[in-house]
Design a protein that fits this description.
The protein has 125 residues and is α+β, with helices and mostly antiparallel strands. The chain contains 3 helices and 5 strands, in the order E-E-H-H-E-E-E-H. It has 2 domains: 73 residues, Roll (Ubiquitin-like (UB roll)); 34 residues, no CATH class.
């Protein structure tokens, strides 16, 4: 039996987590808050301590889509050091509809597969 004063792997460490919370209320505008949280912290704790919920009342922390590094996360998910919590806003336009509208406005000569890449080539190749 070994006796030691070294901390065991089973003990909970009192380390601090560095976490970033990011929100973009509109295009080309990003608000980031860097926090230092106590070790067992959740996504909800990071959101509340960031102050973004108070600065942007349009964010409803129970209905908003939340992610950690681009992956959907629940409010009770535990965070790790250097995590990035992201608050997603709803899409204004369906991506398929936006693509169709771009195709109609730009025409077939400048859009995707229908562009002639070189003189004499068939479209789409």
């Amino acid at each position: 039996m070994l006796l030691s004063n070294a901390p065991s792997k089973l003990t909970v460490s009192n380390t601090q987590l560095n976490v970033t919370v990011a929100y973009s209320p509109k295009a080309r505008e990003v608000h980031e808050v860097t926090l230092r949280l106590e070790a067992p912290s959740t996504v909800l704790c990071a959101l509340q301590q960031s102050g973004l919920l108070l600065r942007f009342p349009e964010i409803d922390n129970h209905d908003a889509l939340i992610g950690v590094w681009g992956h959907k996360a629940k409010l009770d998910q535990c965070l790790r050091d250097h995590d990035r919590v992201e608050i997603y806003r709803p899409l204004r336009v369906d991506p398929k509809v936006a693509r169709r509208e771009r195709f109609v406005s730009q025409g077939s000569r400048v859009a995707g597969l229908f562009v002639k890449k070189r003189a004499g080539a068939k479209t789409g190749y």
